[in-house]
Every structure is written in C-alpha cells, then in structure tokens.
Design goal:
The structure is a single chain. The protein is α/β, with parallel strands linked by helices. It is built from 18 helices and eight strands. The strands form two sheets. A six-stranded mixed sheet has the order 3-2-1-4-5-6, sandwiched between helices. Strands 7-8 form a two-stranded antiparallel sheet. The longest helix is centred in the middle third of the chain and has 22 residues.
Amino acid sequence: MSVAQLCNYYPKYSYLDDVLSVTKKNQLNLFIDLKGCMQSLFQEWAVKQIVFQSEGTQVADSSPFLSVLEFISFHKIYCQKRDIPLKMYIFLESGKSSYHKDVHKDYKANRATSDFFGLDDGQRDLFTKVLDKNYQIVSNVGNKIPDVTVIRLKYLEADFVPYYIMKYAIPESVAESTNIVYSTDKDMLQCLYADNIFQFYRHYKKIVMLDQKTAYTHFLKYDPGWDLGIEWFPMVLSIIGDDADGFKGVHGVGLKTIRNVMDEVKILCGGSMQQVYDNIHNKKPIFDTKYDVKSTPLKKILKSEDIVVRNLKLASYQLLCDYVNNGYPLAAAEFKKQMDDTISNTNKMTKAVVLYNALNNAGMGGIISESTISNLFIGHE
C-alpha cells in the first residue's frame, strides 16, 4: 500500500492555477479537512491493512501520518514551482462534540458503524487507537513544519475551524490571498463569503472548484435563481434539515420547495442573517409574524421556528464562533485559546535533518523518502 493512497485528495495543478489566475493574488492559504481528505482511510482494504500491520507489534502502523507528510510535500513543491508563499491549516476533531450534543442529543447519532468489515471488537479498538496515535503525531509534527498549522480539537467538531481562522485569526492574510478549503462537506459552503475563497470538492469522479456563484447550485443540484448571499446558507440548511448530521428540518419543506420560499423567508428575517443571530442570542423570535403569510410552506416554517433555531445552532459556523469567542463556559475559552495559540505558534523546525532524525528515532526511518522530508522545508533552509 502506498502511503499517498490514504490522503488522496490531490488537485491537478491546473485547478490551483485557475483560481490563482482568477483572484490575481500571489499567495495561497489552504484549509485542509484532514479526515475528509483521507477518503480511502475507512475503506476495507485500508482498515484491514492498518489493523494487520499493527497486530502483535509494539509499533503502530504509521501510514496515515506519512500520507499527510506526502500531501504537504506535494503542495510545497507546487508553490515552489509557482514562486508563491503557502500557508496550510489542517484541522480535525476527536470525540463527540459536547456543544452539538447539548443542543441536540441525536446529532450525528446515525453515524455509528454496526459492521466494521467483519473485524472483532479488539480489532476495531486497535484500529481506533492506531488512528488516534497517528492523529496525535500529525498534530505534534505538523505544527513543527514551517508554514503548517494543525488544529485538533477534542470534543468539539472542527468543521468551523477554517471559517474561524479566516474571519477572526488571519483576516488580513485572507484578504490578500487566494484561499481554498479542501472538503466534501456541504457545511463548508459557509466559508465562501468572499470572491477569493473557494472550496475544492473531490468525491469519486466528481471534481469541482466551488465559489460563491456555484455554491447553491452544487448543494441543491439545480439553479434556484436566488439573489442570496452565502451567509443565508445555514438558514437554507436549517429549514431543509440534514439527515447525514442527524437533524430533521421543517416537515414538508425540502430541496424543491425551498426554491420557492427563500426570498420570503429572507423578508421574514428582516433581510439580515446577523439580525437572526442577534435575535437568537437575545432569545427573541427570528421571524417577523406581522406579515400575512399565504404560502403553506411558509406557514409550516413559521410554526417550526423552534426547529429552525435548533438547527441553526447545529449548522451555523457563525453561531459556533460566537460560542467560542464568548469565552463561556470554560470549555469555550479553552477551545479558543488552543486555536489561537496554535495559529500563532512560531516554534518550528528549521532543518529537514531534524525531522529526519526524529522519524528515525521513532522507528519510521526509511518509510518516507529523504526528498519528501526535504520538500517540507522548501524555502526555509
């Protein structure tokens, strides 16, 4: 098994060239949904390979970690060839999100795996432990590599991290750069709030670079003809619901119906998603009921305001950022500090030989080439 097969979310150079050409920005920020980019990791061949390589040994299979190094190296080489600065922000989470479970106990409850390719409980537990060890090494080593930041949150879903970084941690860099989120997660469409931010979507044979203009068409699978900003995407998702994340929307309002009502929903919300968020924080109604609503779907939405508000708390990155930035409860303040400290960290390795020796000492020498390790330090030696 080639380690590059595990983290296989590679774009052709032409995809990156195209967006750089469109934005005319001469630096690149990449935001990497690590688990989403390791699409092969949970396929049967990979799971069994990792388990069988790790059984009865003192050294766990390190191929997931090594695949991430190859992935970083690929992008470092690309930016060297194009002579542009690169920043990579890798994010992942471990454990169930306490924030989301407090809002809705069934959040993502349907993602439990009942049959794990015939592996027994001990083998499943071993696979989980091996992955956890690899994720920890990715975090420890990744944060030592120049221009790479790895944020691993425990007990808080990390999907909102690129939104948080762009909006609150590095807004100046975002404005001056081409920014691309690597993820198949539809929730990431919230990040496309500026015309220099894109989402690289790769799922089997479907590969597309999404932007503000194509986000709704991609999600709804048709052109709704809306004059809606992407800031309204959480409202759309909250009304429809998301079976993949385990929360139901308004009964009887689905992908087809939403096309006909969103313009009026926007009016009922006062024309501002920020007002919606302010009303939620202040425990006020989010819909203005003084209008004489005739549409049956709109009546259903108004009657289901509690469901819509609950779903917004689950789906909206802005509300999750507000939770973290508010600093209460204590866990929220700890999440914020962890992210801010990791992003601002300047304690990096300065030479490839340091990492090479560290990998050798950890029993991983010879598995990944010296040239790959050297590529991780392009421009810094």
